[in-house]
Amino acid sequence: MRILIADDEPELLELLKLSLQNAEWIIDTVSDVNDAKTYLDAYSYQIFLVDRTFHGKDRVRELITYARHKNSSMGILVLSALGSIDEKVQGLEYGADDYLEKPFDIKELRARLIALSRRYAPKVKNFEDIEIDTHSKTIKKAGNEILLTSNEQKLFFYLLERGNIASRDEIMDALYDNPQNITSNAIDELIGRLRRKLHPGIIKTIKTRGYLIAI
Length: 215
What we know:
Number of strands: 13
Strand content: 15-25%
CATH topology of the largest domain: Rossmann fold
Helix content: 40-55%
Radius of gyration: 21 Å
CATH architecture of the largest domain: 3-Layer(aba) Sandwich
Structural class: alpha/beta
């Protein structure tokens, strides 16, 4: 995920980049309105994190409008010291998805960014000739819809939405009301059926740890 942060406080930009950047998040920072527009022109961002004021002037409406014009499926979060109810409402009316007042807790900011990324995540994912619609929870292979049983569908989309390794116990808890009455072989059978219906490599076995779908 690529994030653009626009703020006229260099120390805050450095702090945010150090705190948020990781193997999965690319963080670009700018301290000027024109630079923000240049970056929005040059790159495709999943999230735009923007201050309200730049050098004493409220420029957030201008920047939100510009960002929305470039990419309507970008999450926008306003991060500002202007934190009255009216100011927050105004920021949302300008087109922001979320508004966080300064000072803030970095853990709360990270949680809000994750929530935004989920909201704007692509609804269709692809794996070779397989097309997965995460909204309707349907799967097509070579253009033809694949019919899954209820438990096959629940298991597949649980693993897909989870995004990391799930153990057998975690899968059983997610799928069944009374997992204590289900044998672990039931999960192996569901995994096997999904691999045969979809693709042998779509669900990975992580030895001694569980299963993973990484698309």
